[in-house]
């Protein structure tokens, strides 16, 4: 339904968006995931109509949006600074945008009630917004975005100002709302946990370009580049030179992989070794070292060796102990 | 440069640049791109869009030097209750001197009542102005931007981080 074609934008001579193309299907939640400065908020503002692209096209069911002003696009926005009106109660804050559109009173009342029910705030309708917690205020902002029944929902780091446990609750709530409705959503975040929890599709944005576009599982399995693997924290990223037959010369010695595509000998290669890939004991691709740091995390130990590599182990080794371990060739992944 | 709390003279001009009104206000804030002052309504009580503007009502006025509108947030003179926002569409404000700013008013106005009810005013007058196509388009885009800002209520009044433009935002938002 929404299609972006080759969107360009620069700021003070520097490209912010360097040719971004993607589309969003009905009911789909797309997460734009990138570090700060990757251009993701600018992209959102262009879609919202709050900024213009220098070139490229923005289409809604084939109709060009360029000439349609922001308030006529029918897109709902939720920002990090949710900016409620302190002089209005919860229901009146949610009703504000509908009143701006001069909708009939009964319709406004109905939609406000619906939106508050959706975010579990029906009992709060008459409360002062200044009496609410940060998380509750952000739910009011969400209800405000939902009330006009937008054609598209857009979120810009909506949970960024909240503390961790509140974020977790709101993330669950957002998931439920986005999954239950047909409204497509674009969700901008730098937080991969949020992106992986919410997205039907993740777009990895880096220096104004989309580096990867896929389902969370696809992106996780095949990050596609050293940058993406590092950004997503997937594990150890090694660089080296191809020697042929899937062998790669690295700072850790020559590693065997199962990669068999022809690569010019000597061409640079990036490899990913996930922390769970380590096998204790000797074998092909020995990558052992002395234990420099141990951290208990979830249900296993995250062990950093003195050679800089990080592995997950079920049992805690002793600090300073020399660990003999290896990584099977099939667990050494080539990054493009 | 005027300092905070010093007096600033505001001159309103018509599309031809002629002065049509002049008053003074007290400087509340200034940042690159905008200037905010406080002025008191100095005309006799005036019924307007279902409310009454009263002599002495407090106007918190934000003028932008890079946007085609300004926003007057109106508070009651007695209890400071918010009455609404009166937004003038016009050319970006110009600092004519350290203590004087002016803006060219392009007739078009947006009134947003405290509950969100909004009205575009003086569209006929705007249509009748002798404006080039570029100016007309800028004014219309400014109106659309204001409407979007209030509707999404990313509302009055700040200039955000990294110099990017934030929409007007309300007062005293709590994190």
Account of the protein in words:
By secondary structure, chain A is of the alpha+beta class. Chain A is 25% helix and 34% strand. The longest helix of chain A is centred in the middle third of the chain and has 17 residues, at 164-180. Chain A has helices spanning 40-48, 90-100, 105-118, 134-146, 164-180, 192-198, 216-221, 226-231, and strands spanning 2-11, 14-24, 29-33, 55-60, 63-64, 75-79, 152-156, 185-189, 201-206, 209-214, 236-244, 247-250, 253-256, 268-273, 279-280, 289-297, 300-305, 310-313, 322-323, 325-326, 332-335. Chain B starts with 6 loop residues before the first strand and ends in a 23-residue tail after the last helix. In chain B, 36% of the residues are buried. Helix content of chain B is 15%, strand content 45%. In chain B, strands 1-2-3-6-7-8-10 form a 7-stranded mixed β-barrel. A two-stranded antiparallel sheet of chain B has the order 4-5. Mean pLDDT of chain B is 85; it is low at 155-175. The interface between A and B is medium-sized, with 39 and 30 residues.
Keywords:
heterodimer; A: 336 residues; six-stranded mixed β-sheet; five-stranded antiparallel β-sheet; 8 helices; B: 175 residues; mainly beta
User: Helix fraction of chain A?
Assistant: 10-25%
| Principal-axis shape of chain A | elongated
Spatial strand arrangement across the major sheet of chain B = 1-2-3-6-7-8-10
What structural class is derived from the secondary structure elements of chain B? mainly beta
